[in-house]
Amino acid sequence: MSVLGWLLLTVLAALVGAEVIEWCGPAQRALLRVAAAKLPEGHKERYLEEWTAELEALPGGPLNRFRFAIWLVVGGASRLAGELPAQVHGRASGSYGFTGTAEAPKPQWVLLDPAKVSVLPGELRSHVKSYRADGHTVWVDAGPDYLVWNVGERQPNTGAKDG
Amino acid sequence: MSSELRMTIPLLKVLNAMLEAPDQDLHGFKIIKLTGLKSGTLYPLLARLENAGWVESDWEKQVEPGRPRRRYYRLTGLGVEAARRELSNLPGRTATPARTPTPPRPSMAFGAVS
Questions:
Q1: Mean per-residue pLDDT for A48-67?
Q2: Taking CA atoms, what residue in B is nearest to A100?
Q3: Band of pLDDT at residue B93, cut at 50, 70 and 90
Q4: From CA A104, how far away is CA A114, in angstroms rounded?
Q5: Sequence ranges of the domains in chain A
Q6: Do A54 and B109 touch (CB under 8 A)?
Q7: Average pLDDT for A16-40
Q8: Given an 8 Å threshold on Cβ–Cβ distance, is A76 in contact with B44?
Q9: Closest by alpha carbon to A126, among A40, A47, A46?
Q10: Alpha-carbon span A8 to B65, nearest angstrom
Q11: Which tens digits make up the pLDDT trace of B10-54?
């Protein structure tokens, strides 16, 4: 190959390399979005933000970042989704709680301390079997036997609000 | 709840890393570096530990403009206690020396209404 040929090849390789590097960032972020899409509602944004921050702070080159993102896409996000409770998000003051479904013999209300807990204003509907509060968010574990909504409105236990 | 946690080698690695850096809030990549775990392994473990109340997390307070917030993880008082116990159960392993545990989470008030 002539000198001119090598020169052209070098320039072409440099251009392709620059193009690939240009696409790395968006591709990595797209992978994170794919991973976050596998998570339950209420967790997607948190983890997307967390992972994006980690991705941007990762040392090393694009390959290291791809590795971080790919491991989340390949199984990591699905496993994480299995660990996550459904999250009730939003903030409001007042008393909230949950009640049993029609299968439960008695409606049962459990009050959260409004001084310590904030939950979604308006109607809350989710499957609940237990929850814990970290002072900011009420975490609701998914379960087939309970519904949850705003106790402030004291809705009757119709058992028809499933879903 | 803690008894529901199945101890695995990766989980013990995370507990060990967090126990050995008790005064540090660790973000995800830092824990990855300390444990050698993959990102896809770490985050499910952290979620499991959070669900068990062994670990708590919070967003970083001061963020440089234009940069997304990092999430920091730390062992709770319960987590420190449990991690020490689990790690000391390992053959040939002595638990990390005691430290002042983090204050417990605020408890919720329960009461039957109707």
A1: 89
A2: B114
A3: low
A4: 26
A5: 3-83, 86-163
A6: no
A7: 88
A8: yes
A9: A40
A10: 42
A11: 999 999 999 988 778 899 999 999 999 999 999 999 999 988 889
Question: For chain B, which domains are there?
Answer: 2-88 (1.10.10.10)
Range with the poorest average pLDDT among A3-12, A136-145, B64-73, B101-110: A136-145
CA distance B57 to B69: 12
Q: What is the ipTM score, two decimals?
A: 0.73
Distance CA B72, CA B26 (A): 5
Are the CB atoms for B95 and B87 separated by under 8 Å?
A: yes
Q: Hey, are the CB atoms on A82 and B44 less than 8 Å from each other?
A: yes
The whole-angstrom separation of Cα B98 and Cα B100 is 7
CB within 8 Å of A21: residues ≥ 6 apart: A62
Q: How far is B92 from chain A (nearest CA, A)?
A: 31
* CB atoms inside a 10 Å sphere around CB A156: 8
Residue count (chain A)? 163
Query: For testing the chain A interface, which of B26, B29, B42 should be mutated: the one with the most A CBs within 10 Å?
Result: B29
What's the whole-model pTM score?
0.61
> ∠ at Cα B56 (A135, A87), nearest 5°?
60
Q: Select the residue from B74, B76, B108 to test the A interface by mutation, using most A Cβ atoms within 10 A.
A: B108
Do B48 and A58 lie within an 8 Å CB cutoff? no
